[in-house]
């Protein structure tokens, strides 16, 4: 009988490659070999496959079975190859529809009883198979909901190896198997539990700065004493960002699937990641010795990465943010392969001004020695701060309620509408460019493009650049934020002669932008 062939998917980060799974019998000592650069988990598949076939009343022949995973030079990881290996091996000794095998990719792990167990990364695997032109994908029954999010591909949720064999025309004894369920997981927050920006009391300037950051996609650093509302503001940022479109939602869902989270539908609210300050570089960047998993940076792509108590993070962990902030992606290199994850997120940092939190606070006493204050502020390196668009200083709130006779604070709904309108104007202004938000615009286009400011407007920036108190990156970021502030003036001109001023502190390498 000719070798049997079917397909599986090898994931490297979010990228997936089709792997042809070939099985053949030979008249040698009975054995089961898997070749083609398998890892330890795939090497153990022969035992799982042998027992699963026997317990499904589809025993393998007592001959030498060789399974080849091609291309052989492509690294392959995880137990998601079990079903493809098993069905190819069975097709060498049972009558099966060769055409059905050839147009089907299989993803899933086998239990010893023959049932298909859910695996992480089903969604990106199905996306990769669909892009490669595969017509049908077989997945574990527990993963069928997330696999069905991919259009233009026929998804089959199988409970057991019997179901898969029956799908390909093999004669299988009748019987129904109970599907293996997903492990119970906490469901992500939905719009019904969204925090409202109106809950923030006494920080109108900070709320305005948050809206500016959301409108332009700018990175934000908030410094202030404990209890000033830094965390409250950061946690309300995703609620005022525009919802995710289909492509962005599919990417976010794929990353969650790869991280092992359950995915039932496409998320529309931008993700929010807030790792603890004890997080290591690997926790932020991602990685793994054999199977690469996304870290907090990749999981925040399309949304917000919030580092509370930023001064308590290790300097090495903070500096690992520099490259993804510039490139919008993060590369993880391991021996033999390279994984690339998206990293297009908004960074929000929150820190106290000193270890005790009272430095510069009116009416409070700071007990920290000067060396401790310098060391605390020095945790955020110059190159990292140079990538922050907006630096905001917060003061303690002097009242527990909105002042009598004044309107309640800006609501999330109002702020989201302002952000939507600002982004719509930016997209219209950038119609003939590859960018859609101010934060994405290249510096050269800002300085010399059709919307470049007049030389008289740029003169203070040029002077600061010439004397070395402002970097060229900082120069460009001032121009990016200024575009949003000018747009904000035109939108809010009806508010009692309100003026928005962008004040650039040129005495430091960073830009301190304040909205008054």
Structural class: alpha/beta
Distance between the terminal alpha carbons, to the nearest Å?
A: 80 Å
Could you say which overall geometry the principal axes of the C-alpha atoms support?
Answer: elongated
- Which sequence of strands runs across the widest sheet? 11-14-17-10-18
Low-confidence stretches: 488-516
The residue-averaged pLDDT reads: 87
Gyration radius (Cα, Å) is 28 Å
Biggest β-sheet, characterized?
A: 5 strands, parallel
Give the helix proportion (percent range): 25-40%
- The total of beta strands comes to 18
| Proportion of beta-strand residues | 15-25%
SS summary, helix count: 21
What would your notes on this structure say?
There is one protein chain. The chain has 516 residues and is α/β, with parallel strands linked by helices. The chain is built from 21 helices and 18 strands. Strands 11-14-17-10-18 form a 5-stranded parallel sheet. A hairpin with a 2-residue loop joins β1 and β2 (15-26). α2 packs across α3 (82-90). The N and C termini lie far apart (80 Å).
Provide a short characterization of the protein structure.
This protein has about 525 residues and is an alpha/beta fold.
Sum up the structure in keywords:
516 residues; alpha/beta; five-stranded parallel sheet; four-stranded mixed sheet; 21 helices; 34% helix; 17% strand; elongated; disordered C terminus
Give a topology summary.
Layout: E1 4-12, E2 15-26, E3 31-35, H1 40-43, H2 45-55, E4 64-70, H3 82-90, H4 98-102, E5 104-106, E6 109-110, E7 116-117, H5 122-131, E8 136-140, H6 144-147, E9 154-158, H7 161-167, H8 204-216, E10 220-223, H9 230-235, H10 237-240, H11 246-258, E11 272-273, H12 281-285, E12 286-287, E13 293-294, H13 296-299, E14 304-307, H14 315-319, H15 322-327, E15 329-334, E16 337-342, E17 346-351, H16 370-377, H17 382-385, E18 390-393, H18 412-429, H19 443-448, H20 455-466, H21 472-491
Parallel strand pairs: 3-4, 5-8, 8-9, 10-17, 10-18, 11-14, 14-17
Antiparallel strand pairs: 1-2, 2-4, 6-7, 12-13, 15-16
Helix pairs in contact: 2-3, 8-18, 8-21
